[in-house]
Amino acid sequence: MPQRETHKQRSNVYAEHMSRDYPHNGEHSLYHGQSRNYKPKDVEGRSSTDDRRANKNRHEMRSVSQKLPPYQGNATPSSMFTESSVYHSEGEQQQHRQALYNLRYILTTRGLCQITEVFLNLIMVICAGVPYSNNGGYRDLASLGGIYYYHFGGAGAFTGADAERVKQLDQQFHQIKKPPYVMLMACGGAFLAYACAMLALGVFRVPYRWPPVLLVEALLNILISLSYIVLLVFYFLELKDVYSNTVCIEREEMYKSKGHKGFECQVNGADIAGGLFGVLGVCVFIFGSVVAVRAFRSVRKLKKQQASEEANF
After folding, report:
1. What are the transmembrane regions (predicted)?
2. From CA 232, how far away is CA 225, in angstroms rounded?
């Protein structure tokens, strides 16, 4: 009994002490006691409202993601930049492959034939340009006297009136021989430009897009082959007239009188080379026309196959 009374006194003293220091202790103890096994109604309502709001937000986000393109629905800016850079690099690689594919045309039969046409006409122009640009003409260095007469004088030198006559004959002969070389350079340059144009069209695959270009090329090649024949005939006829002229004969005799060689009135190596390359040009252009016709047939057949496949698809 004395112990129970002592315990009650201690509990009363502790209760008075807590009520004095913490006046809201009662409310706190009440709430603390109820919070263990009690859920307020407003808390339950708030949680249900939050659940409905979260479901609504998820539904809106799903609908927005469906409306956006695939790369915008769930892609970050870094991933979009990476994809754009990848597309850019793929485009450059495709252009590079297309350029290499176009250059492969040079190794085809038509490409090699057209390159041969270019070089043949270029060599023809060079063969005609060398004698055209060679003015020649006698240089009367012996008349200067001294060391010039020692090196360039003697029995092989023209002096006085003979030197003036040789200079005059050289100038006249150079004017006479110009027309055939000008004709050959003009025709060779025109055929060279045509061959370069056809080669460029082939590299850019224009005949594949417009096959009638191949028929036009074949027709022009035949006409150029015939033009080569006419050109070579007039070229050698003009050279024959030049070398049979009295000016050329007199010039040759004067140079022979002094023991000089290389001034004969006959065709030289450049003239013969120009004629030979002209004959090769005739053969190459005829072969080019045949190849163009074959290419036209191949392209037409390929396009028909593609059209039938597309129709069946």
Report:
1. 112-132, 181-201, 213-237, 272-296
2. 11
